[in-house]
Task: inverse folding
């Protein structure tokens, strides 16, 4: 499919971003990740800003998920993963000796590619983070659950069946429940790895609207394979690709270009970016 | 309308090859059904073989004397058929065994499924399953010659401990059951999708919190099934009780004393020579029927529990 860059730019919402930039919340400097001897992605420099949606795009295997999983230290679960370079949250090294992985994840929430609600009630799904991260009264929990479900635009659909199993929801509703669950821990950053790839176009539009509505309160990083989606929702875009490493035969991911979405899509600085977003990537 | 002459001949009737495959399907299906019915039939036969002597038993001994009495001496003169001493013995030994097997089994299962590195798991699991293959008579002998004299006799604070004790039998029985408990509950835990653990971790939960708040409830039905099997094994275990618990009907709450379980009673009585039409012979069946009923009720009850608390993941 070939999409004209102009068409894509028409999808781009008029930026709510004022010309002056929002403050940086997280910053990666020279971030590289290896799985065992294989270097999956190298030398990534990114700045994630409050009240902005940052899209990570690029061909399959270029390390988008790998980079995203660094932000909340989910790569800790992969035994072979090794992270080099510097990743900071408000200037604090996320992988430093003073950072606890649990604390990191409480401030940096995550929504996964496939909706993964717990096989518990809708209410218990949203309350999970609060229950784990310290006791709260019933009234506080009730309030938190309602606020989070409203925040994820799901409240009206489920308010009469909060005790029903989360698995009784549709796929799109489940994904919004996962968003509600993530924002219920009141994070500052929200990571989303292809949050719409398991959803139909209508449910996708819902999630995109939702992202647009909640970005005032969070710094959002979203991985997507969908160029239109990146153009529609994001304020900044990071384009990754793979290139042959100096040695070895597997391809390592690199960050090609990172800038305002309007610029990346309308006047890409790198030829590879242009080829990719116009669908001429080979 | 198309002219009939040009219409190709279409048939949906099965060809010879298809019919042969269908016959194979039918034979396979019948064979599998046959194997399934063997086990069902066996159960039915057991019930029937228990039923008739049990009914005859209750013609001679009143239900009240059986379930209400606390003196079990069916082989003495005058005989007495109060079943509570051997029910009590079973309860004590089973209780101890379950108290050992369920927490230990669950602990090992949690370790293997949630904490152990894959390499450790690959080594430990087969070793544990090897333990499940040790004959129970070996466990019974171990209880009699080591646990009773070296542990129970030395450390049990209440009363005098003889060569035999319900405690020693129960402890060893518990150890014997740990591998089954572990194996079944570990299977249930490993079957919980990784994506649920990731969701828990991403919300700031520690490994322990993920284990207890995500994995445990999601695996609960399997864990309950494992527990029921563990309890059933303990109730039904004969050899360890026979060798190490003392085989003396004794209604007592002190596990340091010797006791007789229902299975040990059946085992020891059936070994002696008793004529078929005697009351002693029928007593064996009455106790057997009671054992069967207890296990049956246990299974039904656990199925209810599972249905009530189950957290099914797709
Ligand atoms: N747990 C892992 N162990 C080993 N290698 C991995 C692991 N996860 C990812 N990789 C490798 O790292 C590289 C980058 O993977 P990653 O999942 O980050 O790519 P991606 O850009 O998200 O791709 P996609 O668009 O298909 O999701 C790939 O070559 C992949 O095979
Ligand atoms: Mg990915």
Result:
């Amino acid at each position: 499919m070939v999409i004209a860059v102009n068409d894509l730019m028409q999808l781009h919402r008029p930026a709510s971003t004022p010309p002056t930039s929002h403050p940086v919340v997280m910053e990666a400097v020279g971030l590289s990740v290896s799985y065992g001897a294989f270097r999956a992605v190298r030398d990534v420099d990114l700045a994630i800003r409050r009240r902005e949606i940052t899209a990570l795009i690029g061909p399959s295997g270029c390390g988008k998920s790998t980079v995203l999983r660094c932000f909340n230290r989910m790569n800790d679960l992969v035994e072979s993963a090794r992270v080099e370079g510097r990743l900071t949250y408000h200037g604090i090294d996320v992988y430093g000796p003073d950072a606890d992985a649990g604390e990191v994840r409480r401030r940096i929430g995550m929504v996964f590619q496939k909706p993964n609600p717990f096989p518990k009630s809708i209410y218990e799904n949203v309350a999970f983070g609060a229950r784990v991260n310290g006791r709260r009264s019933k009234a506080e929990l009730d309030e938190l659950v309602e606020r989070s479900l409203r925040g994820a635009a799901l409240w009206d659909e489920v308010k009469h069946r909060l005790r029903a199993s989360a698995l009784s929801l549709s796929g799109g509703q489940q994904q919004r429940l996962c968003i509600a669950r993530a924002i219920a821990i009141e994070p500052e950053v929200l990571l989303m790895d292809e949050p719409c790839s398991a959803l139909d176009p209508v449910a996708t539009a819902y999630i995109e609207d939702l992202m647009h509505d909640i970005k005032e309160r969070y710094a959002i990083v979203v991985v997507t394979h969908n160029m239109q989606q990146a153009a529609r929702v994001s304020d900044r875009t990071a384009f990754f690709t793979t290139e042959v490493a100096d040695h070895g035969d597997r391809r390592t991911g690199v960050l090609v270009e990172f800038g305002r979405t309007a610029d990346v899509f309308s006047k890409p600085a790198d030829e590879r970016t242009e080829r990719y977003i116009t669908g001429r990537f080979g | 309308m198309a002219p009939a002459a040009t219409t190709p001949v279409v048939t949906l009737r099965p060809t010879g090859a298809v019919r042969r495959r269908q016959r194979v399907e039918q034979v396979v299906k019948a064979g599998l059904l046959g194997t399934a019915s063997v086990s069902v039939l066996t159960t039915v036969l057991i019930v029937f073989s228990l039923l008739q002597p049990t009914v005859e038993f209750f013609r001679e001994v009143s239900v009240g004397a059986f379930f209400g009495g606390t003196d079990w001496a069916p082989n003495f003169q005058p005989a007495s058929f109060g079943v509570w001493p051997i029910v009590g013995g079973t309860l004590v030994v089973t209780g101890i065994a379950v108290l050992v097997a369920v927490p230990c089994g669950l602990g090992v299962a949690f370790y293997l499924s949630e904490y152990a590195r894959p390499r450790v798991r690959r080594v430990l699991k087969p070793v544990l399953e090897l333990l499940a293959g040790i004959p129970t008579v070996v466990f019974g002998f171990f209880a009699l010659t080591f646990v009773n004299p070296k542990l129970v006799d030395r450390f049990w604070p209440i009363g005098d401990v003889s060569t035999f004790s319900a405690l020693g039998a129960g402890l060893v029985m518990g150890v014997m059951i740990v591998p089954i408990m572990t194996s079944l509950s570990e299977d249930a835990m490993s079957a919980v999708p990784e994506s649920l653990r990731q969701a828990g971790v991403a919300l700031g939960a520690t490994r322990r919190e993920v284990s207890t708040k995500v994995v445990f409830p999601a695996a609960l039905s399997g864990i309950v099934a494992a527990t029921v099997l563990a309890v059933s094994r303990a109730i039904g275990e004969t050899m360890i009780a026979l060798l190490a618990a003392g085989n003396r009907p004794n209604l007592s709450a002190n596990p340091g004393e010797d006791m007789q379980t229902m299975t040990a009673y059946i085992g020891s009585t059936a070994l002696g020579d008793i004529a078929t039409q005697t009351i002693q012979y029928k007593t064996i069946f009455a106790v057997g029927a009671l054992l069967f009923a207890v296990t049956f009720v246990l299974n039904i009850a656990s199925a209810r529990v599972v249905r009530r608390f189950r957290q099914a993941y797709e």
About this structure: Residues 145 and 298 of chain B are 33 Å apart (CA to CA). The interface with chain A takes residues 117, 193, 195-196, 198-206, 209, 213-214, 217-218, 311-314 of chain B (CB under 8 Å).
